[in-house]
Amino acid sequence: MNENMEKLTSRGQYEEAKKRVELLIAEATGKGMLEPDMDNVYTQEISHLSKQMAIYEDEYLNILPLRQKSPLIASIENYFYAHGMKQKDGAQLLGVNESQFSQIMSGRRRISMSFAKRLHSKLGINADLILEYA
């Protein structure tokens, strides 16, 4: 396996690395050599190529990282799910229109102090969680 692979600098090299990773995954899976915590020639080369591909993606492809949902937004969603509420019901309960609420839930709008207070008083969301993630 090629551990001394140079930095990927072209889309062609990136695509070759991608195909190689797919082939290695298929081979290793077929041989039962791709289980969690395994360290072998397959996992080592897959890891190496994946790191090279990630560097190329960061430098040349401008791929945005996946956004993680904030624990505050997850708490709001969990409350609504547990109470069988839809987003429009939540907006009404919290005293905002659906559009504003949608923007808050998607992270496009900041949480105001008055909205934060309603999250605490109406949904019972922990004040520390609100302060940390609002």
Q: What are the SSEs and their pairings?
A:
Blueprint: H1 11-30, H2 41-61, H3 71-82, H4 87-94, H5 98-106, H6 113-123, H7 127-133
Written overview of the protein:
There is one protein chain. By secondary structure, this protein is an all-alpha fold. Helices cover 66% and strands 0% of the residues. The protein contains seven helices and no strands. The protein has helices spanning 11-30, 41-61, 71-82, 87-94, 98-106, 113-123, 127-133. The protein is elongated and about 55 Å long.
Defining traits:
134 residues, mainly alpha, 7 helices, 0% strand
- What percent of residues adopt helix (DSSP H or I)? 55-70%
Order of helices and strands: HHHHHHH
The strand count comes to 0
Arithmetic mean pLDDT: 89
The DSSP helix count reads 7
Q: What profile does the largest beta sheet have?
A: none
What does the radius of gyration come to?
Answer: 23 Å
What does the oligomeric state look like here? single chain
Low-confidence stretches: none
Per the principal axes of the C-alpha atoms, what is the gross shape? elongated
Coarse structural class? mainly alpha
Beta-strand proportion: under 5%
Q: How far do the termini sit from each other? A: 48 Å
